[in-house]
Amino acid sequence: MANAATHGRVARGRGRSAPLLMVIRVLIALGLAVDAYVHFILAPQYQQAYPDGMGGGTLFRIQAVAAILAGLYVLIRGSRLSYAIAALVALSAFAAVVLSVYIQLPQVGPIPAMYEPLWFFEKTLSAVAEGIAGVLAVVGFFLVPRKDTALR
User: Fold this and answer.
1) Which residues lie closer than 8 Å to 88 by C-beta, 6 or more apart?
2) Contact of 84 with 70, CB cutoff 8 Å
3) CA atoms of 120 and 99, how far apart (whole Å)
4) Which residues contact 137 (CB under 8 A, 6 or more apart)?
5) Beta bridge partners of 45
6) 3-state secondary structure of 14
7) What is the mean predicted confidence (pLDDT) over 108-130?
8) φ, ψ for residue 122 (rounded to 5)?
9) What is the pLDDT of residue 96?
10) CB atoms closer than 10 angstroms to residue 54
11) Rounded-to-integer distance, Cα 124 and Cα 121, Å
């Protein structure tokens, strides 16, 4: 009987990993909040080259909204799906910023070329926050039991 009770507690997210998962969720949300803040702050500067079209500013605003939604979702829900979405948002943003520094990619359809071979404070802050949030989201994904849909 004790095994069933213990198994039930772990399956509902009240086991030993629950406090760790809550800390991970908060850190992911904070990382994505930093990502969103930096993208919102930088968006107007990157939109100047494309004032009426799909410029860098538009992409930055889309990224910021995606980061906010993913951060809130993982913070509120804590499910494997929420961790997967947070990882996708954070790691795709991290990959984009690293690629924009080291690889000169051409314009692809409506997406402008975003090559900028330098690091500055906001870009570095965003990359670090995205990288940490992405790695923590992957860790959280694997720590949540498969049969558990949410940790509350």
Assistant:
1) 70
2) no
3) 15
4) 28, 74, 83, 84, 86, 87, 90, 91
5) none
6) coil
7) 91
8) -65, -40
9) 94
10) 14
11) 5
Name residue 6's beta-bridge partners.
none
Give tens-digit pLDDT for 22-54: 999 999 999 999 999 999 999 998 887 666 667
Contact of 94 with 130, CB cutoff 8 Å: yes
Backbone torsions φ then ψ of 108, nearest 5 degrees: -120, 105
Radius of gyration of the chain (CA): 18
Yes or no: say if 45 and 74 are a contact pair by the CB < 8 Å rule. no
Instruction: Give the number of other CB atoms < 10 A from CB of residue 109.
Output: 6
With H, G, I as helix, E, B as strand and everything else as coil, classify residue 145. coil
Tell me how crowded residue 38 is: count the other CB atoms within 10 A of its CB.
25
Give the pair of three-digit tokens for residue 28: 């992911």
- 74: amino acid identity, one letter: V
